[in-house]
What does this fold into?
Amino acid sequence: MAVNYISTWCSQCHGVEGKGDGVNSTPDMLVNPRDHTDAAFMSTRTDKQLEEVIRHGGISASKSAIMPPWEATLQNEEIKALIVYLRKLCNCKFEGVVSDEKLKKISPGFK
Ligand code: HEC
It folds into this structure.
C-alpha cells in the first residue's frame, strides 16, 4: 500500500484494492462506493473532479452523501497523492468528456 491513510480511511468503503468492496460496502447501500479500478468510468473523470469529491464529499458533486468530505482531515499533499494513487489503480487518465448517455451505459447509477 502506497500510503497508509488509504488503508485507514478509504479502504473500509472502497476496499483494500480500491474495488468498491470494503467492509462497509453492503448491498443495502443506495449507492455503493466507486470501484476505482474501473478504467472505463475513471477515464471520464478529470483529476479536478476527483479532487473535488475527496475534498468536499459526495454531496458536493451530487453523489452519495456517504462519501465523506476529507478536507479537514487530509493535507493538500495527501489529497494530491491520493489522485496519483487513484490513477495507478485504474491505470488510466482523463480521456475527454463523454455524453450523459454514454456515461449512463458505463455507470448505470450515474447522476
Ligand atoms: C463511508 C464510506 C466511504 C469512505 C470512508 C470513502 N468513500 Fe469515497 N465514496 C463512497 C461512496 C458511497 C461514493 C459514491 C459513489 C457514487 O456516487 O457513484 C464515493 C465516491 C468517491 C469518489 C468519486 C468517484 C466518482 O464517482 O467520481 C472518489 C474519488 C472517492 N470516493 C475517493 C475516496 C477516498 C480517496 C477516500 C479516502 C480518503 C474515500 N473515498 C473514502 C464511500 C466512501
